Amino acid sequence: MLVLGIETSCDETAAAVVRDGCEIVSSVIASQIKTHERFGGVVPELASREHLDKIVPIAEEALTRANVTREELDGIAVTIGPGLIGSLLVGVSYAKAMAYALNKPLVGVNHIEGHIYSVCFENPPVEHPALALIVSGGHTNLFFVPQPGKYKVVGRTRDDAAGEAFDKVAKLLGLGYPGGPIIEKLAREGNSRAVRFAIPRMGDHRPDFSFSGLKTAVQKYVRESGLQPVSNVEPPSSGIKDLAASFQATVVRSLVITTEKVAAKYHPKTLIVAGGVACNGALREASREAAARLGVPVYFPSPHLSTDNAAMIAAAGTVKLRAGERSSWDLNADVMLRLQNIDVEDAELRKHVRYRL
Ligand code: KG4
Ligand code: ZN
Q: How far apart (Å, rounded) are the C-alpha atoms in residues 120 and 122?
C-alpha cells in the first residue's frame, strides 16, 4: 500500500511516500529555519506563504524520488491539526485537490498522532499498552495508548512546551533559533551541576509538567549573576555553557521522572519518546536508563524523523486508510485538534487548574 503524506502544520513543508506504513520510499522536508531565525521564532504569515511556494515542488519531488506516479498511490494522508491555521490550510487544500482530481482515498491525520507513529520505521513493532512522551515545540504530553488508535492524556504541560522552553531560554541567552540543538551543543561543554534549578512539583500531585517557571529562573539567574548573553563577536562563555547544561538537565529530569512515575502506574510494554525534543541526546540517555529500570524497551525515532516530517503522517494515515477511514471533501484544518479519545477529563481539569488544553 503506497501512501503519500503531506505535512505543513508549522514551519516545515514536507511530503513522503510510505509503503505499507513502515517503509519510507521517499521523504522530502523543506525547513523554513532560515526565514524565521532572525525573528527568534516562527512568523505565521511568512510560514504560510512559504508553504504555498513549496508545497507543489516538494510533493512532486517526493513522488519523483520514490519513482512513483500519482496514479500508483493508494491514498493521501494530510496533517489537519494542531498547528498554525494558514500553514495547515496549504497542506489540507493541496491534499484535498489532489485526492479529488485523482479520485483517491483521503485521510486527515492529527500531527501528534503522527509523532507517535514516527517510531514505527526503525524499531521493532510497538507492543501495547504503550506510554508515549511527545515533546516538541508546541506540545508536551504523556499518552497512555492501550491499543493502536486509542489515546488517553495522562500528563500534560500546564504552560510552555519543553521545546518552547529550549527556544525561549536560547533567545534570552542570545543564542539562535531553534534553541534546542544549540543548547544541547553548548551543554556538552558545560557542567550540569553548576546551577541548581528546582523541578516544579504539582500541588495536586498530577503527573504534569511546567516549564515557564524554569525559564523565569534562568532569566533571574542571568540578571543576578551578571552573566552576559552571547554576542555575535565572542564565543559563548563557560558560564553560558554551564547554564545551558544545568537548564537542559533540569528539563530532562522533569520529563523522565514524571514519565517513570506514570509508567510505574500504567505498566506499559513499550515506551515511546518522540517529537523535536526527542533529538536531544541527554533526554535519550536518561529515557534509556529509566526504561532499563522499568524493564521495558524505549523507542525513539531517528533524529530526521523526530522533528516534523511527512513520513510519520503517511504512517499514521496508512493505519486509518487500512481500517477504512475516509475523510470527506469538507475536511478542514483544526488548529486546536486534540488527541484523546478515551477517559477525557478536560472539563474536570478545567475546574481545578488553568491548563492550556
Ligand atoms: O516536532 P518539532 O519539529 O515541531 C513541533 O511540532 O513543534 O519540534 C521542534 C522543537 C523546537 O522547539 C526545537 O528547539 C526542539 O524541537 N528541538 C530540540 C532539539 N532539536 C530540536 N530540543 C532539545 N534538544 C534538541 N537537540
Ligand atoms: Zn511536530
A: 6
Report which protein residue has its CA nearest ligand 1's atom 16: 276
CA 146 and chain centroid, separation: 21
Number of C-beta neighbours around residue 70 at 10 A? 14
Determine whether the shortest distance from the Cβ of 275 to ligand 1 is under 6 A.
Answer: yes
d(CA 118, CA 133): 12
Return the closest-CA partner of residue 142 out of 43, 259, 61.
Answer: 259
Task: Give residue-wise pLDDT tens across range 278-294.
Answer: 999 999 999 999 999 99
- What are 68-123's pLDDT values in tens digits? 999 999 999 999 999 999 999 999 999 999 999 999 999 999 999 999 999 999 99
Rounded Cα–Cα distance for residues 300 and 278 (Å): 7
Task: Name the residue of 115, 307, 309, 312 whose CB sits within 8 Å of the most ligand 1 atoms, as the mutation to test its pocket.
Answer: 307
Grid cell for residue 49: 506563504
Which residues pair with residue 23 across a beta bridge?
Answer: 19
Ligand 2 centroid from CA 136, angstroms:
6
User: Given the DSSP bridges, would you call strands 106-110 and 130-135 parallel, antiparallel or unpaired?
Assistant: unpaired
User: How much is the pLDDT for 131?
Assistant: 98
